[in-house]
Amino acid sequence: MRVNIPGKGVLEGVTLLDSTTKNPKCHRFSRVPFALPPTGPHRWRKPHALPSTYSYGSEASPGQYRNPSSVCPQPRVFGRQFTIHDEDCLQSNIWIPLGKPPDGGWPVFFYIHGGFLQFGSNNFDDPSALLAETGVKCIIVSPGYRLGLFGFLASRELWEDGSPAANFGFWDQRLALEWTYENIKHFGGNPENITVGGLSAGSYATFHQLAFDVGPNAKKQIIRRVFQWSNGCGVQPKALSEVQQQFDDLLHVLGVPAGYTQPQKLERLREFSADELTAAVNSMKQKFFRPIMDGDFMSEDLFPSIFDGRFGQRLKELGIQTIIGDLTQEFHLYKNVYSPTSYETLANRLSWDYPRHVTLAITSPYKPSASSGSKPTEYWKDLFGRLYADMQIHSTMRGYIKSISATLPLSNIHRYRIDWRTASVDKRLPKGVGATHGTDMSIWFFGNGDSLTTSEKVMIKEWLKPVANFIQGKPVNWGTTSLGQVKYITEAGDIEIKDDEAWEDKLPLWELTKQVTKTAPLSKPRL
């Protein structure tokens, strides 16, 4: 398949075939640049759009977009280490259904991959069977973006280097979304019918892309609806002053003299190779680099507006709809990600992700007393997994839903909960962990590259029917009749409408973080 983008040239993709039948499934363009490489002097700066002179290829010699996108450099995790990576990773993979587009063009699903904003790649997921075998017919665009210290390093020195000078990974996603809006019609897509979604960190990023899109700093509203799989809005991020110590620790590990001037520090940091930087992370006290309140991509008023209902009112005004939900056993995966062994290490580990005053508030009930005795390592590991799952998903998601529902009607909020997984997941995760974090990708992407049984296909196709209408922008018959209900896949694989058994249990932690955020001094982005 070829696509001609006027003024930018000709791209040639590939038609994907079923491995067994050899029948075509969909078209794919991969490794399609949407920005200049964020390398050299562009490292730790806002991404630059492709210049007007950029060409993807010519009619006589079209650009070949068949190979996987570049993988952003990242530390080893879960035993996985990429042998090939490249900071020049601002590229998208694009899947297109077979056949003629409908009037106005295919709806577009802009999918953001997960991985704690530290790991992962837009090459990992495979929605080809979804487009080939189900009623979900849309163009899927999945961008690569900068991760970890390449995407979310922040400090006073970087702030003085130029503005915006934080949340680079979020700016990458935004530029990819703007590229999609401007160019997707040439692939047969409808730029006025874009859904944004993702899993885990991709869901968290989805929320912040939505918040920016409907906020005061966006030039144009692009997003019409959102998918949030296993994540919500989280809590108000750290201020610049709190992450400065992480930057200083990075300099110390790399041997950059603290007495260097601001320009000298950044010049030296930009001289290190990607491998040297990712290796340094393994020796740092805090290994996760998270978004900060910068007053630019993330408005200081964002969380106050969620708490008082203004954010939900804005979503109502724009007609934004959401599908949002979780799995029953999310914590089983989380508890193994740099798990702590004591109360002190529990508080420190959670401080990688959340402001210290929030961390201390949520962990204080578990602080051992002199008479309580020591707890085994497994206790702290399990507690961390459960607290992390609540903070990332269960509690903050439900609190967010409750807040926006004060103004956003139930017809715009489609809640789900999953206690089931496909048999294909067994080759990666033991059955005993159940429906844990990420196991639902084989549901949403109809196998996600793996085979499904006949009965699984029947059930998942039924589950995806309202999803197809959602993405197309048609009325959705979700089936729930109150905010406390969810569309549920039971452990046996049945689809039911049920009361959310975790609703009352998980909301108190949201209320605690809300109270702590309200009573803490306003975190100004600048030092």
Structure characterization notes:
With 527 residues, the chain is of the alpha/beta class. It has a single domain (2-343, 346-519), classed as Alpha/Beta hydrolase fold, catalytic domain (Rossmann fold, 3-Layer(aba) Sandwich). Helix content is 35%, strand content 16%. The protein contains 17 helices and 14 strands. An 11-stranded mixed beta sheet has the order 3-4-6-8-7-9-10-11-12-13-14, with helices on both faces. A 3-stranded mixed beta sheet has the order 1-2-5, with no helix packed on it. Helix 13 (356-363) crosses helix 17. The protein is globular and about 70 Å long. The mean pLDDT is 95.
How is the topology of this model organized?
Layout: E1 2-5, E2 9-12, E3 14-17, E4 24-33, E5 63-64, E6 91-97, E7 106-112, H1 128-133, E8 139-143, H2 148-152, H3 156-161, H4 168-183, E9 189-199, H5 201-213, E10 223-229, H6 240-254, H7 262-271, H8 274-281, H9 302-308, H10 310-318, E11 321-327, H11 331-334, H12 343-350, H13 356-363, H14 377-404, E12 413-418, H15 441-444, H16 454-472, E13 485-489, E14 495-499, H17 503-519
Parallel strand pairs: 2-5, 7-8, 7-9, 9-10, 10-11, 11-12, 12-13
Antiparallel strand pairs: 1-2, 3-4, 4-6, 6-8, 13-14
Helix pairs in contact: 12-13, 13-17, 14-17
